[in-house]
Amino acid sequence: MKLKLAAPAVIALAMAWGCKHEIIQDPGTDSGNTEICFESEVLPIFQSNCAKAGCHDAISHREGRVLNSYDNIMRNGIVPGNALSSGLFRVLYASGESKMPPGGNTSLTDAQKATIGIWINQGAKNTTNCGTACDENAFAYTANVKPIISNYCTGCHSGANASNGMDLSTAAGIKVAASGGRFIGAISHASGYIAMPQGGAKLTDCQINVIQKWLAAGAPNN
């Protein structure tokens, strides 16, 4: 069954990025907490997975699209209040050559797709300085560390196209990257290291502490 898009611009976007999709479920508006924060929950997903070298950053602007900021994301097929009619949400479920992110890159998780969809359904607001909850005393890999790394890092550092050969998609991979202090130096924006996420905002002190405490505990895959 084909879903009807709401506007010609969205139709054009869907056609340009392909029309074969998995079944797309409407994620609704309930985030299980409060309103989705664009700055800390949505933008990092786009910056890591889309707005990177060779894809949709300001330099590469593949297919004429840049996805590195709120205004640029909104120009690319977002229909506030309606995720299912938003080409930029629908393309996340495309398959084959139309798949986004394309082959060789790590696919967005169901949770990341849902976050984007819920944000759109909630009105696609440019929410900033939201004070997203973080507990630095909760540092299990699956529940606390992996979501941070997935949102900020694995778009570049995972899969066949992992930048600098650094795969951060597993607990073991993060542990290897952290040896010698390079990983923590990068995310802490310490002098002498390339600041990461590249082109994105620095992780909060709480997020960095969560990762450091997990590493100090032996980086368990828990």
3D architecture notes:
With 222 residues, the protein is mainly alpha-helical. It folds into two domains: 8-121, no CATH class; 141-216, no CATH class. 36% of the residues lie in helices and 0% in strands. The chain contains nine helices and no strands. Helix 6 packs across helix 9. It is globular and about 45 Å long. It starts with 7 loop residues before the first helix and ends in a 6-residue tail after the last helix. Residues 1-19 have low confidence and may be disordered.
Secondary structure elements and their pairing?
Elements: H1 8-16, H2 38-49, H3 70-74, H4 87-90, H5 110-121, H6 141-152, H7 171-178, H8 182-187, H9 205-216
Helix pairs in contact: 2-5, 6-9
Shape: globular
Strand content: under 5%
Query: What is the makeup of the main sheet?
Result: none
Number of domains: 2
In short:
The chain is an all-alpha fold. The chain has 9 helices and no strands.
Structural features:
222 residues, 2 domains, 0% strand, globular
